[in-house]
Amino acid sequence: MTQKWTHLQTKQPTAEKMLRQAIIRDRLAHAYLFEGTKGTGKLEASRLLAQSFFCHQLIDDYMPCGECHHCKRIESGNHPDVHLIEPDGQSIKKGQIQALQEEFSKSGMESSKKFYTIVHADRMTTNAANSLLKFLEEPHQQTIAILITEQVQKMLSTILSRCQIISFRPLSTNLLIQQLVESGVPQDMATLLSQLTQNVDEALLLLNDEWFAQARKKVLKLYEAIQKSEGEALLWLQQEWYKHFQDRDQIHIGLDMFLFIYRDVLSIQMDKRERLTFPGFLKELEQSALHLSQKTILLSIETILHTKRMLDAHTNNQLLMEQMVLNLQEGSSVV
């Protein structure tokens, strides 16, 4: 457990210092908002804080021991007074917040303390956010709320004003690549993974995930199809892409890798090949660098970014992908 806290200190020194001092001084806030990009350790920090909150054998007055009954149950995810709320489908609904409030109206099962974490708090419906707001305005004693978001700009200002905000910063890409290579990851894969996540453990999970291995191949195949013909690219979407990239998180990963290909083409044109994310795809990248203008590449990058922005709000992902492919082939951008 001390190792996990040390990892937090190394990766997020500012966040770790704020939490450590609050625990030592017994001044934990009743509500925190952990904000930052994906893979920066927000959920792990929430779990560590919960363990410190309940642990009776703190190390150096702030680190959870990892061995007591509370620490072990929180680590395994089955502590009766620690709750995790995640989106039900695409959003967190009012009923989920009401169920949480009802649960917290009861006496604690193992102590007088209660702790809850809301993941993707920005995805709360308006009714859910208003229910939570009432909860935050009248906090229960010895209760801590952690709200986690990657898009703090989507949070209600009234909720933000009732939380202590702690920002989780992206890791240094070079440091992450170094850690991955030291873990036995090939250099080219370490470079790709470092662009997709800021978390070493998450990167290793992706590396060993057969879905991800196939996703990487399919992204490269789609790129090749787009360079050939409109019909082939749309057919590839129908036959391969939609079957493999099914939920929005998977589509985001695919679009990110697609974006990296165009960025690699631009790097070749600028004679900065040491930055390539797909060095094994060099021959195809060089061909594209010869035939595509820099303006077309930049428009293609903007098209992919626009597709990513639209993805969370769009109800027809297939139509969105087909429109992206058509615009990429035309060398135009939709904004």
Features:
about 325 residues; Rossmann fold; 2 domains
Task: Give a verbal description of the structure.
The protein has 2 domains: 2-168, 3-Layer(aba) Sandwich (Rossmann fold), CATH 3.40.50.300; 209-330, Zinc Finger, Delta Prime, domain 3 (Up-down Bundle), CATH 1.20.272.10. It contains 16 helices and 5 strands. It has helices at 2-11, 13-24, 42-54, 69-76, 94-104, 126-137, 157-160, 173-182, 187-196, 200-207, 210-228, 230-244, 248-269, 282-291, 294-311, 317-330, and strands at residues 31-36, 82-85, 114-118, 143-149, 164-168. Helix 8 packs across helix 9 (187-196) and helix 13 (248-269) packs antiparallel against helix 15 (294-311). Keywords: DNA replication, DNA-directed DNA polymerase, Nucleotidyltransferase, Transferase. Residues 250-329 form the DNA polymerase III delta subunit C-terminal domain.
